[in-house]
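User: My collaborator sent over this chain with a note saying "see what the structure looks like." That's all I know about it. Can you take a look?
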Amino acid sequence: MDDAASQGPSLADGASRQGPSLADGAAPSAPAFLPARAGRENQRYDEQGRRLVAGCIVVREQAEGGERECLMINSSKEPTKWIFPKGGWETDETVEAAAVRETLEESGADSEIVRKLGWFGDATPACIFEAKLVTLHDSWAEVGERKRLWMPLSKAIESCKHPFMAEAIRALKDSPRA
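Assistant: Without extra context I'll predict from the sequence alone. Here is the result:
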């Protein structure tokens, strides 16, 4: 990934860029969730009119010498395909907050950002972060629409619906651990 990709797209509004086992491994809970945000009226777009998105690759360590795993969810449009949580970056939040929010809405995983992996994708630029799991909830905004699964990073790369997601997971897998 080159420096231009890690810097991200230019924002149209001039905003800052700051700012396979079943899924388990953290204390499950069942808080009351607000519904997932919907609509695109508050979405951010770059100078080329491309919608900007943010997401997290939630990673957990495996026992002695095992490959790290990441939390994958099924695509809402193609339920047999796997993706990691990501979605629109809105005008009232930082890119980091958008990534954490989308991860919670789509997978039920409260997560903490470890580091920024960079910007991936051309048609819809996506700022992707490595994150660690804080809490995995039994109930979440999209529980009726999504399945979730822990996958070894190598299997997740092969299973990704989108090439830019495979590229992001590969960047995570090939980089030194944070």
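A starting point for your reply to your collaborator: Residues 41 and 90 are 9 Å apart (CA to CA).
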